[in-house]
Specification:
It contains 18 helices and 15 strands. α8 crosses α13. The chain has a single domain, classed as Rossmann fold. The chain is an alpha/beta fold. The strands form five sheets. It has a five-stranded mixed beta sheet, sandwiched between helices. It has a four-stranded parallel beta sheet with strand order 2-1-4-7, with helices on both faces. It is globular and about 60 Å long. α14 links the parallel β13 and β14. Belongs to the NARF family. This is (wild Malaysian banana) hypothetical protein.
Length: 500
């Protein structure tokens, strides 16, 4: 499989070729009848005569429904996940909305030697010059996902640790690996909150469209992401819904609407810039679309730290305050355990035990009862234990511990790629002479370079979304639009025989 996909996808029996014993179920369905006819009518061929085969078109949804294979990034980038399709929808006159991730913003900033704020403003200019109607920043939807994740964790913790550790759900490579390889025993531990990509998709397609009276079938939503796995995520049936168009008086004219129509990687945006010979550094900086962007009235960006979304840090700080009344200073320093991709943080609480003693004073003619309170300090007890788990090897170790019932963490931020999302397969590659390690360190600095640290619960954009649309965190409406379910997929016999 292409190196552009995450290690979890590349190593989870999801091969980039179809072996003879692992025929694609789509191709079998598509040409089964023709093969049957050919077998009945086949004539003797000379050894030199080539066997005539025909290509079969398959979709990402077909691949997700099959446990046999996923083809390489170079050959499976379908019409709905390409630059050409994006430009075609602009030419159609559709209402094109672009949402860019902070990881992609940092990658472009490193490549062009700009700040993240400059990049976001120039990217806004770029896409609007092509015909996009709005450009948003997914830091806003990430805050929505973080708030819902905090609420979900508190609920699980208070239910006597039910389904703990809670595993983050923002990484589609990890989710695909869990569904296809790990099965039902691990899925209950995964958070039900959608990723920032799908959260902003839900906000646009279920709220913004209605708020401004737009036609759903004319709105084309594109995200810019650091990872090719995000293309797979956008193609999931769980993240689409149907509407009744009622065309020509027909009430049953049903149309499927995805929350995210297309995903472009950071590298593909660079390809777009270069293909049009655009001098990106000299582009003017446009005002930001503040409706779904973390930008204050002075034009400053704000958000949480953490190049992979800041899930562990945000949930940890919220849980410490909500459950134990402890205010935690951000950013948190996570301790390295096995390697730089596996780190942890704990909260220890010292409980005080009050003992009521009666002291008798025998020195006086009468007994005088004196009440004394003695405070006994009990050694600190670990009440919260969180971890960052990046990369496939660390991921496997955690999964093994959970399966054996020996995992003592309460929350784990899981990412399939080593170093997390900043090192996603869709990011711009290191320059000649620059190591991947040096580039990642540069991205970690740039990620928050001109971004003010802010608590998601204080985000006015998010608060407005709850007021106008969702109600409150964890509400039925929030669960309907911002939460999802996972499905264990049974491996095909052909796939198992091939790997055996």
């Amino acid at each position: 499989m292409s190196e552009k996909f995450s290690p979890a996808l590349r190593l989870a029996d999801l091969n980039d070729f179809i072996a003879p014993s692992q025929d694609c179920i789509v191709s079998l369905k598509a040409i089964k009848s023709k093969h049957e006819k050919a077998e009945n009518q086949e004539k003797v061929r000379s050894p030199s005569q080539p066997l005539q085969t025909e290509a079969v078109k398959i979709s990402l949804k077909d691949c997700l429904a099959c446990s046999g294979c996923i083809t390489s990034a170079e050959t499976i980038m379908l019409e709905k996940q390409s630059l050409d399709e994006f430009l075609a929808h602009i030419n159609y006159g559709d209402t094109v909305v672009v949402s860019i991730s902070p990881q992609s913003r940092a990658s472009l900033a490193a490549y062009f030697d700009l700040s993240p704020s400059q990049v976001l403003r120039k990217v806004t200019t770029l896409f609007k010059s092509l015909g996009a109607k709005a450009v948003y920043d997914t830091s806003c939807s990430r805050d929505l996902s973080l708030i819902e994740s905090c609420n979900e964790f508190i609920s699980r913790y208070q239910q006597h640790g039910q389904s703990l550790p809670m595993l983050s759900s923002a990484c589609p490579g990890w989710i695909c690996y869990a569904e296809k390889t790990l099965g039902s025993y691990i899925l209950p531990y995964i958070s039900h909150v959608k990723s920032p990509q799908q959260t902003i998709g839900a906000a646009i397609k279920h709220h913004i469209v209605q708020k401004f009276g737009l036609k759903l079938d004319n709105v084309y939503h594109v995200t810019v992401m650091p990872c090719y796995d995000k293309k797979l995520e956008a193609a999931r049936d769980d993240f689409s819904f149907t509407i009744d168009k009622g065309e020509n008086g027909r009430p049953n004219s049903v149309m499927t609407i995805p929350e995210v129509d297309s995903v472009l990687t950071t590298g593909e945006v660079l390809d777009l810039i270069q293909s049009k010979s655009i001098d990106f550094k000299t582009l003017k900086e446009s005002p930001l679309d503040s409706m779904l962007t973390n930008v204050d009235k002075k034009g400053h960006l704000f958000g949480v730290s953490g190049g992979s979304g800041g899930y562990a840090e945000t949930v940890f700080c919220h849980a410490a305050q909500k459950l134990f009344g402890r205010e935690i200073q951000r950013p948190i320093e996570f301790r390295h355990i096995r390697n730089s991709d596996f780190r942890e943080v704990t909260l220890e609480v010292c409980f005080k035990l009050s003992l009521l003693l009666t002291c008798f004073n025998f020195m006086k003619a009468f007994i005088c009862n004196i009440l004394l309170y003695v405070i006994l300090q009990v050694d600190g007890e670990t009440v919260l234990k969180f971890a960052l788990c990046y990369g496939f090897r660390n991921l496997q170790n955690i999964v093994r511990k959970i399966k054996m019932g020996k995992c003592d963490y309460h929350f784990i931020e899981v990412m399939a790629c080593p170093s997390g999302c900043l090192n996603g397969g869709g990011q711009i590659k290191p320059r000649t002479g620059q190591s991947t390690k040096d580039l990642i360190q540069q991205l970690e600095i740039l990620y928050m370079q001109d971004v003010e640290l802010a608590d998601p619960f204080d985000n006015p954009v998010v608060q407005r979304l709850y007021d106008e649309w969702l109600g409150q965190p964890g509400s039925e409406k929030a669960k309907r639009f911002l939460h999802t379910e996972y499905h264990p997929l049974v491996k095909s016999t052909a796939s198992q025989l091939h790997n055996w």
